[in-house]
Specification:
six-stranded parallel sheet; alpha/beta; about 30% helix; 10 helices
């Protein structure tokens, strides 16, 4: 089989390699990969900027969907012919984050899915939603599960609440769609008026251009009649966190997802105290969250937003497109 291997950091470190098709052992399944999708974490690992050292060589990319083509002994959850998505945390079945094992993350330290075939632990896979294509289903394991885990598994979102999502990347757009499906109102921030219009077409009630409105939290408070928002999808890092605190309602929730604006900055804990805001990190989510989300995806026929699809061999071109930040939604690699 063919696989793309990251042998050293940098795009030049991505090389094709011919490997033997792996054989599933006890309680493992072999899938023929149909599609994978990019996440910011994948880009950081390739560029050597990820906050945790990842041992190379590595088959990159955490997300993916495939068809089961062989099973090991004692496999009970799947059969040949099933269509499955890999979980990001291969050994976080359910419960709190204490149950997740850091050394079992797909796409680093464990090999990812940028290969024609891959072996998965049967406990580290879920059935792909029946209403989604392979290209759509490939986008779910990281971005969609992160949004679901933040708003539903942890956030217990309710109809009538207000959600603020920052930007129009994968997690933010999934959060918009999940929030709307739950009956919540959504406010979106972006530096692009065009992307704000596209977010409104997906159901966002309001959009704020943060370049023109650097004090965007004041507008959020105004849009909510002085109350603030109940849930925030925080992807900017310390630079935007201060604004998020100002935009939050009393007892609001801030879900820290990423740090696109940088990892350095100052946060005054008194601001958290004054509003009694709940602040939590969201490290994707468990298989339990993934399966619950998939049931909801089928029930409401939610369709992931796809920005662009590349042949899987063009991973460097896809990553450069992704790094430029012009995408609206997910970037997918098709086999």
């Amino acid at each position: 089989m063919k696989a793309i291997i990251l042998k050293q950091t940098g795009f030049d470190g991505l090389t094709f390699e011919e490997r033997a098709i792996p054989q599933p052992r006890r309680q493992e399944i072999l899938i023929q990969v149909k599609a994978t999708a990019l996440n910011y974490r994948d880009l950081e690992i390739v560029e050597g900027r990820y906050h945790t050292a990842i041992k190379l060589p590595l088959v990159p990319l955490s997300d993916g969907v495939g068809e089961v083509v062989a099973i090991g002994e004692d496999v009970t959850r799947f059969k040949v012919g099933d269509r499955v998505c890999a979980t990001f945390w291969q050994r976080w079945i359910g419960g709190s984050f204490r149950m997740a094992e850091p050394s079992y993350q797909r796409g680093g330290p464990l090999d990812g899915l940028l290969s024609e075939y891959a072996v998965l632990d049967e406990q580290g896979a879920v059935f792909a939603p029946r209403n989604l294509t392979d290209i759509e289903a490939a986008t779910l394991p990281c971005a969609a599960v992160t949004a679901w885990h933040a708003l539903v598994s942890e956030g217990r979102i309710r109809a009538g609440e207000t959600v603020l999502v920052q930007g129009t990347g994968g997690v933010s757009l999934f959060a918009l769609q999940i929030a709307r499906a739950a009956g919540a109102r959504v406010i979106v921030t972006s530096s692009s008026d065009e992307k704000l219009e596209r977010a409104r077409a997906l159901g966002a009630a309001n959009g704020i251009n943060y370049r023109r409105n650097p004090d965007w939290s004041s507008l959020v408070v105004e849009m909510t009649d002085g109350r603030g928002v109940d849930h925030i999808i925080e992807v900017g890092g310390p630079e935007s966190f201060e604004q998020s605190l100002k935009a939050a309602a009393r007892r609001g929730q801030i879900n820290v997802i990423g740090y696109l604006g940088g990892s350095e900055g100052m946060i005054n804990p008194l601001d958290i105290f004054r509003k009694q805001v709940d602040v939590r990190g969201i490290p994707v989510g468990s298989r339990e969250s993934f399966e619950a989300m998939n049931r909801a995806i089928e029930a409401v026929d939610l369709k992931p937003v796809i920005s662009r699809v590349f042949p899987w061999a063009d991973v460097e071109k896809a990553m450069r497109f992704f790094a430029a930040g012009s995408n609206f939604g997910k970037v997918v690699l098709q086999f």
